[in-house]
Each structure stands twice: as C-alpha cells, then as structure tokens.
Description:
Bound molecules: 1-deoxynojirimycin, calcium ion
Strand order of the largest sheet: 11-10-9-5-2-1-13-12
CATH architecture of the domain at 8-102 and 175-203 and 225-281 and 361-367: Alpha-Beta Barrel
Number of helices: 17
Structural class: alpha/beta
Number of strands: 21
Distance between the termini: 27 Å
Strand content: 15-25%
CATH superfamily of the domain at 8-102 and 175-203 and 225-281 and 361-367: Glycosidases
Radius of gyration: 24 Å
Mean pLDDT: 96
Amino acid sequence: MLKKWWHNTIGYQIYPKSFQDTNGDGVGDLKGITAHLDDLADLGINVIWLCPVNKSPMKDHGYDISDYEEIDPMFGSKDDLKELIREADSRGIRILMDLVVNHTSSEHPWFQRALADPDGEYGKYYIIQEGRDGKAPNNWRSIFGGSAWERIGDSNRYYLHLFTKWQPDLNWENPALRREIYEMVNRWLDLGIRGFRVDAISHLKKDFSCPDLPANGADGLADGFAYFTNAEGIGAYFQDLKENTFARYDAMTIGEVDEGLPPDTLAEYIGDNGYFSTIFDFCHSIFHVNAPQWKDKPVAMMDAIKKLLFEKQEMIRGRGLLCNYLENHDLSRTVERFIPESEIDFYSSSLVGGINFFLPGIVFLYQGQAIGMRDFRKDRLDAFRDPTTFVLYEEQIKNGMTAEEAFDQINRESREHSRTPMQWSSAPNAGFSTAEPWFAVNPNYHSINYEAQKKDPDSLYAFYKKMIALRKSGDFQELFIYGAFTPLYEEESGVIAYRRSDGKRDVLIINNAKPAKTTLLLPGAVQSILLSNYDTVVINDGVIELKRYQMAVIELQ
Ligand code: NOJ
Ligand code: CA
C-alpha cells in the first residue's frame, strides 16, 4: 500500500449546528469550533470533518445547499472559516468539508432557472423528465419516503429527488455541470480545505433502463435502489472528479457509500489509485439491540457485528484502508444501539468504543461520542426537528403502524438523537449556548459532560484519550495502520479479538463484548499490557480472565 498523509487520521466529525454557539442565537457556529480547538487537540485528533456549512434553507440541515460558494450566515462568514483553518493548522489539525453534489437545494439559483426554463441550459443541470399517463416518469420511492419525482407546477414534467423534494438531484451526465462542480471544489481547496467527506456518492448515476418496478409498499411505490446505487459506469464520474480536483491537491476524501460496495470494486474505490481515500459505509447501522431481530439477543448481535467487521477486513486486506467509525449525525448513539439499557455503564461504553478502534483503517469519532452522550427520547413527535422524521412517521402510518408504534420506532431509531447539542459542562444548556438551543439539550448533561470528564482520570473521555494516544504513539502507529490483521477466537461467542503484527511487534486486542466473564488461553507470552478499561488484567499461566465488558490491548513477546 502506498503511504499517504491521511493514513494516520484520528478524525472527529462536527455537526456545527450543535457544537458550540458563540453569539447567543441558540445555534452552533464556526467561531464555536475555533474556540474548542484546544479541547480537540487535547483529545488527540488530527482531522476534523465539518458537516455542511454552506448557505442553505436547512430543509435537510445543510445537506440542501443553495450557494456552494458561501458560508451560511447562521454559521458565520468565510473569514471565520479561514480563521478556523489557520488555528486548526497551528495545532496540527486539518479541516475537511462536506461535499454535497448529488443534489442541491431547490432554492439554488441553478434549480430556479431550471424551473423557469426546463429546456434551457440549467434544465440540463437536473434530471427532468416527462410524466407518463399523467403520472411520474417511474414509480421509484425516494430514500426519504414518498415518490422520488416532483411535478413541476401543473406541467407534465417532473424532477427527480432521491432525498427530500427540496433536494433536486443534479445531472452528472452533463459535462457543463461537472465542470462547475470541479471549479467550486478547487476554490475550497485553494482556501486551505484539505479534503472532503463526499455525500451520497453511490447515487450519482441513475439507470433509467427499467420503467415501473413491482410496488413494494402501501404507497404503490417501489424501492429503486438497484437502479440508483453504484450504477454501471459510475466510476467514470469519480475518476473525472478526482483527476480534476482532489488529486491536484493531495486531498483526503471519504466517500459516503450506502450499504457498502461490491467486494470486487473496493480496491477500485480505495486502493492506491482509488477514486477516494477511504469510505464511510453504513454496514453496522443495521444493528440495534432493541430491534425485533435482536431483542434479548445482544451477544448474538455482537457476534454478527464481529463477523461483518472481519469480513470487511478480509475484503480489503492490504489494498487500502476502511474507515473505523461508529457514530455520525445520521445514527443514534452507539451505546444505545449496541448495549442493552440495563448494561450501559463506563465498562460497556468504553468497550464499544474499542470494538473497531485498533482494526486496520482510519479512525473517526463523532462529537459527544468520547463522553458517552446518550439518546434523548422525546415525549412528543413535534419535539423532533428534521422534516425527514415526519415523512418517515407518515410512511409508517400508511404502512399500517398505529401512531404509537410509529412514534416508538422514531424514538428508537431517529437519526436526530445524535444531533442534540454538545454537552460541554453542567452550566445552563450544557454550556452549549446562553440562549434556548435550536434543539433541546439532553437533560442528563449534569452527569454526562466534557468538563467533568476531562478532570476525571477514570472517565470515558480519559479512556478515549488513552486509546488515541496508543494508536498514535511512535512505537505503535505504523503497526496499527499497516500491520497484518489476524482474527482470533472467532468461534468464541461475545469475544471480538484479533492480532496486529508487523514482524517487529505482535499486539493482541481482545474485547469481551458481553456481561459475563470469559477465560481464554493466550496465543503467546505477554510482554506488556498496553491498555485496558479495567485497572487490572488478570493473567495466570497464560490464561486471561476478562471481566464483563473488559477490553485489553496486550503486547506479546
Ligand atoms: C447523507 C447525509 O449524511 C444525510 O444527513 C443527508 O440527509 C443525506 N446524505 C442527503 O444529503
Ligand atoms: Ca450561533
């Protein structure tokens, strides 16, 4: 594998709206991020990915961009961004932005011009088609519910939106559109941005070869994923994008792929000459201890997670680096998803953080993860803030759920849970803002907050800091990035264990991901214990005894 600057990334994702408000309007801003750079440097991270900060009507909280060139005034100004880049740089932290180019906002001037003249130049920037027999061009369902087509006025024309109707899809077939995008990307790179997380890449190309598909829901619509996910020929777009932008700046890029990629295409995407540096996939997002499939089977679920994590490593083995992350702004908090409620405490939370931390790959944390922020269940539907939540709710009702069932499901799985304001301290509003926050703070901030954990050497935050320090430490950094990966104790239920070795060193990572102790015969003599979430690691005569949810990183002789 060719070595790249971003291979040692310990990334940190920021959801700017909920990170830190500095001007008392209840919404986080860029100055708020700059104000916390010392805290982020203290944790040990070296890359920040900012969720979208471009001008936006915020129908999808910034994933609906109405001006690619500007910063939304809600977040501040371009000067604020430049200051953030400068200040971050002086602490060895690089800034990545979110590149949302599968679609724009319906308020983007390009789209407004397209609506005014669908046959004109800008009509070709979007995907506009004639209806069929008074109906939409086909029966695809949007990823966020409802038809993927919206009628233009009372004409017989429709535009495609794979997400909300406020997010019309761009037409990547059009070279003029692509050129505009490349120039825009390069302007941000010229400004000092070091790369991008690229939104929804799997959907850039659509295959319209098939008319209506068999309906699979009460709405009469069909799931068209097979036709708009990784469609044949999509790689040519990525290659062109890369050559005209990222490659010229040695930029780091993380493509957001939906459910993962066909294994035989992984190297094409993230190999030495891949389209992207790495990918975020959603493979582990399907696991939830309270989902019907896993209810009362949390250990079996951990085994399934292990299988998936290890299979992915097998697929990419030595050809590129996957991204080891657990949380983001589209998922509820990991401890809620992976650990039964009655078992959530420091030990299980620290264990969860370590599950994929030492696997080959680059690491990404989400704001609040290192202090163990939790989901904040709502008592009313209108306490949620995301238009998509309401569309999904309506959809479930249409599919036959009662109002209570639909609300329960939203409360369990809503992506909004991760968007509650960052819990900095026990000051009012968790120190996030002096005004009422745009989205309610989790009332548990008195016991879960950064300030308290930073002072406490036994806190979850302190544990994350130790994991990061170990992954980055001179002696082990190369081993954890490039060292060989060998699964261990694969048949041992509830145990997620593997070995990392590089010919010079041999390190064992064992996670006892269950609420019962486990004894295992070690595969070699112990040199030293590098890390554990318990004070002691009991080893007698080559046998290790792990307590409930104990994890240990052990160097072997
Ligand atoms: C993925 C983003 O992470 C999500 O928040 C957004 O709603 C969709 N892409 C559409 O841009
Ligand atoms: Ca603000």
